[in-house]
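C-alpha cells please, single chain.
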Amino acid sequence: MKILVCIKQVPGSNNVEVDPVTGVLKRSGVPSKINPYDLYSIETALSFAERFGGTVDCITMGPPQAKAVIEEAICMGVRGGTVLSDRKFAGADVLATAHTLAQGIRKCGTYDVILCGKQTTDGDTAQVGAELAEYMNIPNVANVLSVDGCQDGKLQLTVGLDEKIVSLEIAMPCLISMESDVNTPRLPSYRIKKTLTEDAVNFLSFTDFEDQDPNHYGLSGSATQVERIFPPEKTANKETILGDSETQAKALLDLLHDRKML
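Here you go.
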C-alpha cells in the first residue's frame, strides 16, 4: 500500500507581517516549522503502514526552504518526499494550492491513501483537502479520528461529527483529513537525521507538470483575492479588580455587559 501525506511549512511565530498589496504573509526571514496539524496525519500514516504494511511519502508546496519539513518528516519515519517549488506558485489561494498539489501528486505516482491535516495554522481554511480530492477525482472524508482497519479495498474509519461519532467505510484510493489531538506524534530520529543526504528530497517545478497554463497557479489561478488583511491591534491596557471573589465576579460581569460582550 502506498500512502502520501500532504504537509506544509508554516511560520513558527505569531509575529508575522502581511504584504499590504498582495495580502499574503511575508515569510522571508521568519522562523518556520511543520504545520502542527500535519503531525497527526504523519503519525496516522506511519502507524497504519506498520499495522497493515506499506510505504509512506510526503509532499509539500512552498519555497526551497520548505525542504526542512520534508526532512523532519523523513526523520519521523517517512520514506521520502517532494517539494513543489516555483515562483509561479506564490500567492496561491486554496483552489490554486489544491490544483498545484494535484499536479505534483500525479507526477510522483499513484497512491492508495492521501492524508491531510485538519487545517493549517497560517490559513485556517480547512478546504485544501476536500478540493485536492476533487482534483484527484477520489472520495474524501474529513474530521477523521482514527483509521481502524483495511479490508476489501476499503478503509474503516472513525469520524467525529458535530454531535456524534460515527464509523464508516471509504473505498480506496481516497483522501482523508485527520482531526487534531487524535494521537501522539513520534519525535524525529537524530540517528536518521545524521544519515540524510542531499538527494533525500525531490524537487518539482512548473515545468514538470502536465498542465502548463500559468493562469492555473499562484495568484493568477486563485479564485479568491484578499481585499484587506491586517494584524490585530495590541494594547497593554489593563484593569485590576480588587475585593473578595463575589465582588470580583460581579465587577467582571458588569464590565462584560458594559462592553457588550455578553
